[in-house]
Specification:
The chain is built from 12 helices and 12 strands. With about 375 residues, the chain is an alpha+beta fold. Strand 2 and strand 3 form a beta hairpin.
């Protein structure tokens, strides 16, 4: 970048940082191009694109930033006000971003948020006339509607999860006195968590599936195998990372991470991070559509070709893609596991040892097991 002034069409896109919380840096993401940039901030349409393609258009998004207290953003002035207007837009908006200095820094890569380009403090910000998403606008204007209720209502009306997360981060939802900016990283996980938690309660009302099912998705040198077991709702995700990949850059062997929950859910944040909630939402969407419940285990093998993080959307859309496929059906757990083992490079035994749910199933017998024998 050779100039402090950038003019272009924001997708729209905004970013709220988390460093220094409750004082954070917030502002728009603007590319120096005038074409239709809507794809730049719609991960729902990124599945199938290469890492190079995603980084190419995301790296053009220049981040303007202004420091603001998360609870006092209403008093922060024009820049934050215009940023909020931009965040609620339904399509790309012409923006003039005037910075205090030339943007600096490398491409920001993170396991939760999508990549974006260099940044600089904002000197001034001019935003065209954005047309707001009327569903989001209604939720924004309803200052008696709780944030979680707004998220659920917008999702039920078909608003993309990405758009809900963006509005959530800029303080557009909730009771008037409680509204605040939410760091983008946190807003992504919060929305996935709110939605999946609601769907789980609906899924629990349905009968269990009648056979073992396996769904698969292959993308960006990641292999996802989703095992559904004919039992009451419980959920687990296990990720295996090869040396040289995002979560195992210097390791000599494969690292496995996992988290799980039983029928009653969990009360603590999953250590595996946002991927846990993103995948949980995707599997619940499928179960709700089928009007069934199951015990679900999501297994992910991240191979050496996955050289950089592109955001948690990658997990959500990968599992959604798996859920769109016709499942393989098996009569026994052993048959299903044998198939999954044939799809992975890591020995099946390592997955079994790591899985809390599989250990419970393989070791503990149910009353129905004895009834079937008699």
């Amino acid at each position: 970048m050779q100039s402090e002034d950038i003019a272009g069409a924001s997708p729209p896109s905004v970013f709220v940082g988390r460093i220094g919380y409750p004082y954070v840096y917030a502002g728009p993401l603007v590319p120096p191009v005038r074409e239709d940039t809507s794809l730049y901030d719609l991960p729902e349409f990124w599945f199938g694109k290469t890492i190079d393609e995603i980084v190419e258009f995301r790296s053009m998004l220049i981040r303007g930033k202004q420091r603001v207290h998360v609870k006092r953003f209403e008093e922060a002035g024009k820049i934050i006000e215009k940023t909020r207007e931009l965040a609620l837009a339904v399509k790309p908006v012409d923006v003039e971003l005037m910075l205090k200095k030339k943007p600096r820094g490398s491409i920001v890569l993170n396991d939760t948020v999508q990549p974006f380009g260099p940044s600089a403090p904002i000197r001034d910000l001019r935003v065209g006339n954005p047309r707001w998403d009327h569903h989001i606008e209604k939720a924004y204007e309803d200052t008696d509607l709780k944030a979680a209720e707004a998220v659920l209502e917008l999702y039920s009306k078909g608003v993309f999860v990405t758009k809900v997360q963006r509005a959530f981060s800029i303080g557009a939802f909730g009771l008037k006195k409680n509204r605040r900016l939410v760091p983008t990283r946190w807003s992504i996980t919060a929305v996935d968590s709110i939605l999946s938690r609601e769907l789980i309660e609906k899924v629990k009302m349905f009968p269990e599936i009648s056979e073992y099912q396996v769904y698969e998705s292959l993308y960006m040198d990641n292999v996802f195998e989703v095992l559904m077991i004919p039992r009451a709702w419980s959920y687990e995700i296990i990720e295996a990372w090869y040396p040289g990949t995002v979560w195992n850059p210097d390791g000599r062997g494969v690292f496995l991470y996992s988290d799980w929950e039983g029928y009653d859910g969990r009360t603590t944040y999953a250590e595996i991070g946002g991927c846990y909630y993103a995948a949980r939402l995707a599997v619940c969407e499928r179960l709700l559509k089928e009007r069934r419940q199951a015990t679900v285990i999501v297994l992910r093998e991240a191979r050496p070709g996955y050289i950089m993080p592109v955001g948690v959307w990658h997990v959500r859309e990968n599992v959604r893609n798996a859920m769109r496929q016709k499942p393989l059906k098996f009569n026994t757990l052993d048959e299903a596991l044998k198939w999954i083992g044939s799809r992975f490079q890591i020995p099946l035994q390592q997955w079994k040892i790591r899985s809390k749910i599989l250990q419970n199933i393989l070791v503990q017998k149910r009353i129905t097991d004895f009834l079937l024998k008699t």
